[in-house]
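Morning run. Coffee first, then this:
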Amino acid sequence: MLSRLSSLWRNLTRRDRVDREIDDELGAMYTLLIEEKTRAGMSPDRARREARLELGHPESVKTQVRDARTGASLDVLLKDIRYGARSLRRTPGFTIAAILTLALGIGANSTIFTLLDAVILKALPVPVPQELVTLYENGPEGTPDPAGGTGRYLRFSYPRFARFEQAAGAQASLAAATRSTRFIIRLPGRVQAIPARGQLVSGAYFTTLGVQAARGRLLSPNDVRLDRADQVAVIGDGFWKRVLAGAETALGQTLIVNGVSVTVIGITPPGFGGIWADVEADLWLPLTLQPVLRYQNNSSAYDNADRNKPWIPQKSIAWLNLIGRVREAGRAQVIARLQAANHAALIDFSSSMEDQERRSTLAHALVVEPLARGFSGLRARYSNALVVLSVMVAVVLLITCANLANLMLARGARHAREMAIRISLGATTGRLVRQGLTESLLIALVGGAIGLLASGWASPFLARQVLNTSGQLPMAFTPDARVIFFTAAVSLATVVLFGIAPSIRAARAGRRVSIATTERQHIGQASMKGMRPLVALQLALAVVVVGAAVLLGRTLLNFARVDPGFATSQIVTASFDPDASGYTREEMAALEQRLVTAVAAIPGVASASVSTCGLVANCFFTSSFHLEEVGDVESLPANWIGPAHFATVGVPLVSGQEFDERDRAGSQPVAIVTESIARRYFTDRTVIGKRLGFEKPDVEIVGVVRDARSTSLREPPVPMVFFPIAQPPAFRVSPTNLDVRVAGDTAAMVPAIRDALRAAEPRLMVDGVVPMSTRLERDVNRERIAAYLTATFAGLALLLSAVGLYGVLSYAVSQRTREIGVRVALGARRSEVAALVIRDALGVVGTGLVVGVIAALAAGRLLQTLLFEVSPADPVTLALVLALLFVVTLAAVLVPARRAALVDPIVALRNE
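And here it is:
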């Protein structure tokens, strides 16, 4: 092996010296053989002739020796690369156009794949993520938790978790965790508040995930005890570097979280951000801190549980996502034990229910599902959009490859005489094809490298648009080796798509051409046979992309035209979380008043009002109600609002009156309902004065307002019951939204409102102060991103298709110059010559458009979830697409047609 490596190094680095040695050895062999034959009686001339016949031509012998020596194949490859680079350098226009075109296609694919990988494909950065599972139940009546992106995951109470943990036994590890939530952190001796995201977790959380501490230690079951006096926390590597400057003294550091002092005992390894792929946690705290931290988020209750008491003893407050690590061996037994434990818990839970409700509850089943990719709120929202965008960029890449294949075919036809010369000198078809593929590979590698660099800039930009953030991205959205491998694979695939067929055709064309003539017309016509189908394919694929762009564009227009039922201008909204900021229940009333008073003092502010759920803020609360003279009504949305709320947000009052300062705690409970509730449950009766309530009808209805699209622009107007926020229910509700009506420009008022809120409540962490128009834009962010990107891809597809059609027609005209000259010389009018070219184009264009319309109708089903008030088979959309393609193809056809019409017959025939 060492000898072969030494020979390889010598043959590659000292090629001239090795060739001289071969020449010397070959010359010595000829001399010895000639001398031997001369001694045998031959004349010197005959001896030299016989020696050459016996040994062969010196150059042929040297070639055979070179082919047999170590590293010969690598040497040939290097020669092919050098020759290919020189060949591409001689045609800089073609090379630059091919590389940039390919870079656009590959860069777009790499960018979308980076996002697709982060949202859908990438597994959690933990050991053996395939062993991770999560538990959910085909659950009780109530709103399912959208964790994991499927809408099926339900949260569990702590007693249910404890029962599951005991049932899992030694064959599995089970842990519980809340969703990532906002906490307010302060360092001792500092006033500045630090926003951070954290989770409350059980003691086996890190053990279940298989995560080891980078420094210190992680939480253990001993840290998650109700009787523990000192409180501890684990922080993430990013938080340690960002907030604590990576100080080694971080271990033992005291942090004040929502007013509670905790001690840092460990730091997680870099890259680990928890089980939510799109929301990284900064710190992890024991579940037992729930009451002192005043954690009140992401929970459901199916009876009259007291949310103001600690949640751990209560069995009906569901607030925990459950994760487990179960090895393949014995998985069936573990799942069976968990399901049995769940059934026992349901029996206990339903013991006080009515028979029918009890039977329904006992029919629920526990499901154990893989969790290798972790939870993701973006997965449900963006999966379909990313699949659509992946298809679109793949189509654009196919159009790019078809365009490059046409360029390679034309280039091969122009180099047919060169191929013929190389074949006459002994080059094989395989060698010529390999040389063509080498050139294609060089183009693909350079284009792929440029595309990867462009993707490195575009991917973070697109990820921030998806996440609606300008801050640091979660680790899942950082491009890694998978993106590089994907880009390399796409680059190699493009070589196959646009390189093989033109290389083979060019080699065959070289065999049909003599050195004395180029047989230009014959080779050109043969090349055109391959170009026309590729142009038709380009146009068909362009119809698909352009059709998708028009559908998504019309969707955005429909969103812009929809009436949400409330004011979309002159409103500024602010989102905040008093629970995360450490406010108690007793402080809420004063907080509401201070916020409204602070912004009302700003010049230009007309009114302000708080609410538990803001408009189009992805916030909802549903409950069953008892209506007077109607009975029980299931799952009506509810909201708690301040005085003058409807006047502030511009929701018209149909009848009755709004809440005012008289609707305080201790006064007669009142409510306002939407028109749809009044029509549905109080038909032909006056709703004002009727009563409703959670358990009994003890709340008087004092007003009716118009229905509005409260939760999302996509959803129809929502029937809703409104209560005064000054009359909170038995369970805790907190204001999380402030709406401000202003007289001037909303964007200009944002800084003043933000400063006023900070001055009035320094410890309240306000997440965002934005105009209502911005919140509405964020609500359709998925559709907007998909529309903008698809429009970009459509523009690129149109450009490439037009250039491809123009190039093929121009090439066809150049190949038919003699024929056109003869036609003109024989009396053909110039309009007839132009019509000849146009008819030639119409066949290709017509075929491409027909196939494209069929493909677009089939692909339209992929867009169904992204469309709003428009059908995938909408005839207006198809008409717009065909009209746009007609204009583009007409522009591409007219120039070659005009060039053909202006051919001078004398010049054409003289050149021929």
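Residues 139-153, 514-528 have pLDDT under 50 and may be disordered. Good start to the day.
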